[in-house]
Amino acid sequence: MIALFARDMVLAMRAGGGFGLGLAFFLIVTVLVPFGVGPESGVLSVIAPGILWVGALLSCLLSLDRIFALDFEDGSLDLLATAPIPLEGVVAMKAAAHWVTTGLPLVLAAPVLGLLLNLQGAGYGWLVLSLALGTPALSVIGSFGAALTVGLKRGGLLLSLLVLPLYVPTLIFGAETVKRGAAGLAAGTPALMLAGITLASVALLPFAAAAAIRVNLR
Amino acid sequence: MTVTDLACARGGMPVLEGVCFAVRPGTALLLRGPNGIGKTTLLRTLAGLQPALAGAVSAPPESIAYAAHADGLKAVLSVAENLRFWARIFGTSGIEGALAAFDLGDLADRQAQNLSAGQKRRLGLARLLVTGRPIWVLDEPTVSLDAASVALFGAAVRAHLAAGGMALIATHIDLGFTAEVLDVSRFRAAPQRLDDFDEAFA
Amino acid sequence: MASLWQYANPKKFMQTTSVLLPVVAVLAALTLGTGLIWGFFFTPDDYKQGATVKIIYIHVPAALMAINAWLMMLVTSLVWFVRRHHVSALAARAAAPIGMVMTLIALFTGALWGQPMWGTYWAWDPRLTSFLILLLFYLGYIALWEAIESPDTAADLTSVLCMVGSVFALLSRYAVNFWNQGLHQGASLSMDAEENVADVFYIPLLICIAGFGLLFVALVLARTRTEIRARRLQALIARERMA
């Protein structure tokens, strides 16, 4: 299974578009917002937590359809399904690789973008913490959606329609954590809820995703 | 490996039924039959990629190595990297034997995207050797191979059989070794038959 | 012995529902007609809300059915997943658009009611938001059914989506509560609440709910029959092509 993770990392680095694209998208979304709502720092600092979280969510979404689609097209998924490692493990490893290539860069870049949006002092720590806790859930939920749509010719749009409603709780607790943190309130409760969602998703969704892949392969 | 009374479906319609055969260690079985008869469906069912409608496949667990039209190669990985990945997935080591058997030694460092169709196919077949599994289930393995490569493939299968392995191959060409031939068309599902669910409507 | 599972046989289902459907449909029309006429014309206006209170006779039953439809889809999805009865999967497919329309009715009547009461058509109140999220879940579920050609594959994938979606829908409900305390009143029909709907409104409302329930059952039965026939047609065409 480590081999699979390592291969996906190598592929992401060599094929290009893996690491950089999501991050660039995140940057563009964040930069576009002030053009839309105006440059007043007061307004921006109010909406910063939400914008940063929505931006992170959208950039995660961008690369979801590649999680399984490429392996499905070139036949690797068939071969992995007949390999000695369980399909649930394949899903977990692919989700992990997706997180490292997409989620982790977002976590690291978020403080800089928070600066652009005039995020308030105490918010930075909570921003990084909430993204670190929440983005793994985005990757795992996303790989479930990708598993559902892997056999479809034009699954991309459908994938967004399926996955975005599932992202609602993560988004709410994530943005709430940052909002409360930036306002100097206690942010522990939403952060714990966020961690709970992530842990439950990581524990359970690979099974649902593997079931969906098995159905799609037949 | 024995298969008894197997029935399988494609797109919800039964295509084959009552399929019975046995493959003993050291032998190969060639599947013949016109296009669309259900050879691929049968092989996918044997590989466990789709459930059988009825019947049973008895084979030791995790003994089947499956290879079909798509080779499962990653374009940006080199030949050696592609093979090494599958070796690690299947928990075996050493890809030199596989490289040598399919004459890929000189290409080991070339990226898979720079291979010709026949070379890719050879790499896909070399993957079988690194799986270390006794039963090969192959769907049209010789597509886009030239005569020399077909001979290499034939030799690899013979070596595999000599080591006590088994092979089940859907093909139309002569592979250069003797094997039993099974014509799949005699298992064709009766066209009048609907599956249980559809039968139940009236 | 008669068992519930015998209705999983499409033939048996078609036979039974061909008798049952007209009965349920007539009952639904009678109950709904009684409830609505009683509610609209024979109940007094509310002293605070005036005649707008009468939206309740559509709003509350539709909202209840919107949730019930999803619960029914969850149950039928589980039945399909565990026992693989095709009728069950088709019933789930049949119920989804009805549930979606009920959700839309609840949202629209709620907006019409909210304008005179709260001074706004829409507020990001937890209940309203939850219904909007429910609408998105319905959309995704229906879109997945439509996108997949093979009926068994579609049934499998949508049932997995329904099960996972239910967990997330519930989670969203609590997340949304956490996110914003709202304008919407609490439960209006619970047995032990102090502040309940007055009896004059209560009885016609219950009749309306029963009417919507019967209407829902009738629609699901009719649509399931259509789905079964469509499936039969597909099988016949496929058989034709093979022969």
From TrEMBL, chain A:
Belongs to the CcmB/CycW/HelB family. The chain crosses the membrane at residues 12-37, 43-64, 96-117, 123-150, 157-175, 187-213. It is found in: Cell inner membrane. Keywords: Cell inner membrane, Cell membrane, Cytochrome c-type biogenesis, Membrane, Transmembrane, Transmembrane helix, Transport. Its main location: membrane. One of its GO terms (molecular function) is heme transmembrane transporter activity. Required for the export of heme to the periplasm for the biogenesis of c-type cytochromes. The keyword Ligase does not apply. NCBIfam families: ccmB. InterPro entries: Cyt_c_biogenesis_CcmB (IPR003544), Cyt_c_CcmB_bac (IPR026031). It comes from the Bacteria. GO terms for cellular component: plasma membrane. It is a multi-pass membrane protein. GO terms for biological process: cytochrome c biosynthetic process; cytochrome complex assembly. This is Heme exporter protein B.
From TrEMBL, chain B:
Keywords: ATP-binding, Cytochrome c-type biogenesis, Membrane, Nucleotide-binding, Translocase, Transport. One of its GO terms (molecular function) is ATP hydrolysis activity. Residues 1-200 form the ABC transporter domain. SUPFAM superfamilies: P-loop containing nucleoside triphosphate hydrolases. It holds the Pfam family ABC_tran. InterPro entries: AAA+_ATPase (IPR003593), ABC_transporter-like_ATP-bd (IPR003439), ABC_transporter-like_CS (IPR017871), ABC_transptr_haem_export_CcmA (IPR005895), P-loop_NTPase (IPR027417). This is Heme exporter protein A. It comes from Actibacterium naphthalenivorans.
UniProtKB/TrEMBL annotation, chain C:
It comes from the Bacteria. Its main location: membrane. Keywords: Cell inner membrane, Cell membrane, Cytochrome c-type biogenesis, Membrane, Transmembrane, Transmembrane helix, Transport. InterPro entries: Cyt_c_assembly (IPR002541), Cyt_c_biogenesis_CcmC (IPR003557), Cyt_c_biogenesis_CcsA/CcmC (IPR045062). GO terms for biological process: cytochrome complex assembly. The chain crosses the membrane at residues 20-43, 55-82, 94-113, 128-148, 160-180, 200-222. Residues 6-184 form the Cytochrome c assembly protein domain. One of its GO terms (cellular component) is plasma membrane. Pfam families: Cytochrom_C_asm (PF01578). It is a multi-pass membrane protein. It is found in: Cell inner membrane; Membrane. GO terms for molecular function: heme binding; heme transmembrane transporter activity. NCBIfam families: ccmC. Required for the export of heme to the periplasm for the biogenesis of c-type cytochromes. PANTHER family: CYTOCHROME B_B6 PROTEIN-RELATED, HEME EXPORTER PROTEIN C. Belongs to the CcmC/CycZ/HelC family. This is Heme exporter protein C. It comes from Actibacterium naphthalenivorans. The lineage of its organism: Bacteria, Pseudomonadati, Pseudomonadota, Alphaproteobacteria, Rhodobacterales.
